[in-house]
Amino acid sequence: MKKIILWLLIISVTIAMVSALSLTGCKTTATTETTAAATTAAETTAAAATGAINIGVLTVTSGAFAQLGQDEIDGVNIAFEDIGFTVAGRKINIFIEGTDITPETAVDQMRAAVERDKCQIVIGPLSGSEGTAIKNSAGEWPDTTILVASSAAENVTLPPVLDNVWRVSFQGMQPMHPFGEWAYDQGYKKVVTLGEDYDFPWAHVGGFLKTFTDKGGQVAKKYWVPIGTSDYSSIISDIPKDIDAIYLTISGTDIINFLTQMASFGLDIPILGGATSLDAGTLTTIGEGVEGVCSGSVFTSALDRPQLQHLYDRFYALRGRPVGLFTGMKYDAALVAIQAIEAVNGNIEDIAAFREALKNGKYEGSVCSMQFDDLHQMVRDVFINQVQNVDGVWTNVPIKTYPAVNQFWTYSAEEYEALPLYDKETIDQLFPNAE
């Protein structure tokens, strides 16, 4: 009996030892596999952080704004050519994602940038309606950082604030708030407005009329036209005669068509221009016809600033004409991208760190120092430009500068966020035509 008990004890101890060794072996194997997996992940991240960075440029390549789109492409290329298409030791690949102004195409091309071209950063789009569509769809691409440049739709930088959407250029109201006050102070008390019928001109007209009417000004009538309008005869014949100025926010070939027909009708009324209406490309075509005309903008072609002089010289050597707003906005966006990539030593795969670098950066843009506000909108200088002939070149010369203008001007963010977005209907409600 004692032998049986002893034999059972030996068997029990043996089983326990074998079990312990088995468990120890399993634990050691698991630890080794975990360590190996972690090492592989680290190596993959390191490899990714040393490969090329793909940057998409979302801009218009057909239709009425095609020339503006080419100007934007030039701005991005100049910025990256200056540094040999290399940032923090990483090669930069640029992919042009061409659009046709329509929101649907902009979203399709954004998808192509992310899914086909594997872009970690996308700079663009150009038009206001495109910007609205991209923000509304931005949840599809949470790991792609979108640096909006040129699109000035109001809601891009109004709540909700999206982690992956940042606007380097301007919000449509931003330059028009000071311009509306300035226009009233110059003696313009009653105006008509003419704008293209989409998001950006709505914000532009709304911002101008907000400050203009707050000062005591009146709007006699508002006209809206589709992009690509060629015949303005019915509008020109309908414009009231008892006004002080026409405020224009039409761009590209549209502004050229309107001004040409206005002259042929013999209509001689002072013009006030939006940020895009009297851009450098337009002045090259009809500069003499708008001599002395003033506009409000976040860009100017004549400023004693090394960054602007460099961009001006590079663009003039390339295209033989002065640099304008659209080139400047995309150039600035590229500079912002470069600085933020450098701030994270090229590791933009660390998305949180990259966006924190964007938020905290202080940037020296082409025409001013800049910094993002809490809604991801760049705070920028605003210029009142006047068309002048400078050494034989029609140029936007700044006659007044408003430094560090935010998107709400002197109004509170809460006041603006409580208002409906500007469109034709809300503008009519807020700023009714004078009787």
Features:
435 residues, alpha/beta, Rossmann fold, 9-stranded mixed β-sheet, 6-stranded mixed β-sheet, 20% strand, 15 strands, globular, 44% helix
Write the layout of secondary structure elements.
Blueprint lengths: L1 H47 L4 E8 L5 H16 L4 E2 L2 E10 L3 H14 L4 E3 L4 H10 L7 E4 L16 E3 L8 H10 L4 E7 L2 H16 L3 E8 L7 H6 L6 E5 L3 H12 L6 E3 L6 H7 L7 E4 L8 H14 L5 H19 L7 H10 L2 E2 L4 E4 L5 E13 L2 E13 L7 H5 L6 H7 L5
Could you characterize the architecture of this molecule?
The chain has 435 residues and is an alpha/beta fold. It is built from 14 helices and 15 strands. It folds into 2 domains: 53-171 and 306-379, Response regulator (Rossmann fold); 176-303 and 382-430, Rossmann fold (3-Layer(aba) Sandwich), CATH 3.40.50.2300. Helix 2 (66-81) runs parallel beside helix 11 (325-343) and helix 3 (103-116) packs across helix 4 (128-137). The model is unreliable at 1-47 (pLDDT under 50).
How far apart the termini lie comes to: 119 Å
Summed up, the helix count is: 14
CATH homologous superfamily (4th level) name of the largest domain: Response regulator
Content of β-strand? 15-25%
Estimate nothing, just give the exact number of structural domains.
2
Total strands: the figure is: 15
CATH class of the largest domain: Alpha Beta
Question: What are the segments in which pLDDT stays under 50 over at least 5 consecutive residues?
Answer: 1-47
Q: Outline, from the CA principal axes?
A: globular
Could you state the order of secondary-structure elements as H and E?
HEHEEHEHEEHEHEHEHEHEHHHEEEEHH
Mean pLDDT: 89
Radius of gyration, in Å, reads 29 Å
Helix-strand category? alpha/beta
Helicity, as a percent range? 40-55%
The largest β sheet comes out as: 9 strands, mixed
CATH third-level topology of the largest domain: Rossmann fold
CATH architecture of the largest domain: 3-Layer(aba) Sandwich
